[in-house]
Amino acid sequence: MAAVVKPVIQVRGMRIEDVATVSTLENASYEFPWSAGIFSDCVKAGHPCWVLSVDSVIAGYGILSMGAGEAHLLNICVDSAYRGQGLGRHLLGRLLDIARWNGAERLFLEVRPSNPLAKALYESVGFTEIGRRPRYYPARNGREDAIVMALDLLPA
Prior knowledge:
single chain, alpha+beta, Aminopeptidase, 29% helix, 38% strand, globular
């Protein structure tokens, strides 16, 4: 009987040399992706930018902004080849920890109504809808609203 080898999952800071891989993943995942320049600018500006790797292969990423005791989840994504394995939940958990470690008391995010799996993930960790941003996202037939969600961060 063969031994089951568990993959090595790590979350580490994103580096400039990761931007090309992250941008490729972003382009494969979204119809209206961020540009490589946006990722590069986030890293250079010092935003908390993180990658999740599985056996040293980048399988996801997340980017926060921090300020005034608050955090904003700007972008989070897991490669389609790795979805459904709990990696999005794992990465989100680490991002919540990072926000806490940076002094955030509340974390905000926007999610598309057309992305019910992401919304369900956020709700499952305690995010609640606090409002809507009309016509926030580009969409194939014009614009799509954003659901604004928030989570009060208790000490870890």
